[in-house]
Amino acid sequence: MRYRRVIASSFLAASVPVALGFAQSAPLPEPPKWSFSLGVDPTNLDLHTPEPGVDARMVANLTRSWQSANSRFARHISLMVGTDAPREFNPNPVDPQCDCWMKITRRYSALTAGVSYDLLRVSRFTPYLKGGTGIYYDSFTRGPSSGLLTPALLAYYGDGFSESHFSLGVNGGLGLKVRLGSHEIFIEQMLHTFDVRRTGTGVYPLNIGILF
Q1: Helices (H), 27-183
Q2: Is 168:133 a contact under the CB 8 Å cutoff?
Q3: Most buried residue among 16, 25, 45, 197 by CB atoms closer than 10 A?
Q4: What are 54-80's pLDDT values in tens digits?
């Protein structure tokens, strides 16, 4: 027992100066910062669709960031909300007696957490990588364009008028920060996968924002 106390005391006496040295050399944390960005998914963008409406997928992001001085790593917590532009289509265009025009809308949101890494700093420009995970919510709604549900149109609502679900997703991307005075603007291409168990469910926005 006496030897254990001696060893423990010696280890504690040796570790305290080392810990103090690390604490003195560790980078000082900077105050957390906010950033806001708007984005459009270039893979879902068509302003000249044959049906009424446009094909556009838009997002907005509000982010809280923490990064220590002289460190290339940063931590992020983000809230993302988005929507698809309303679209109209006819599920049975070959039947001239069926006025079956439907309007579809899609909305989604996410609360994510992750990290970013500054690849290098060249003058005012800083390219970076970014990734994380989070909880995603996706909703899909369809209804008659005229507001009247006819018997002919009712056949196309076999799965109901709306669908929604929560899921665990992941995200990643590449961006570039540019310092302008005391602020930074950034542009980034992000990839959000809403559900890790399914492919093809997500949004891929090109975001432009400001960090303040």
Answers
A1: 151-154
A2: yes
A3: 45
A4: 789 999 999 999 999 889 999 999 999
In one letter, which amino acid is 124? R
For residues 87 and 106, give the distance between their C-alpha atoms in angstroms, rounded to a whole number: 10
DSSP 3-state of 38 = strand
Strands (E), the chain: 33-46, 55-66, 73-84, 87-89, 102-118, 125-144, 162-180, 183-193, 202-203, 206-211
Could you report the per-residue pLDDT of 79-98, keeping only the tens digit for each? 999 999 887 777 666 666 66
pTM: 0.76
Task: Copy the structure tokens of residue 188.
Answer: 């980034």
Find out whether 184 and 208 touch, Cβ atoms under 8 Å. Answer: no
Structure tokens at 109: 């949101």
Phi, psi of 30 (to 5 degrees): -90, 160
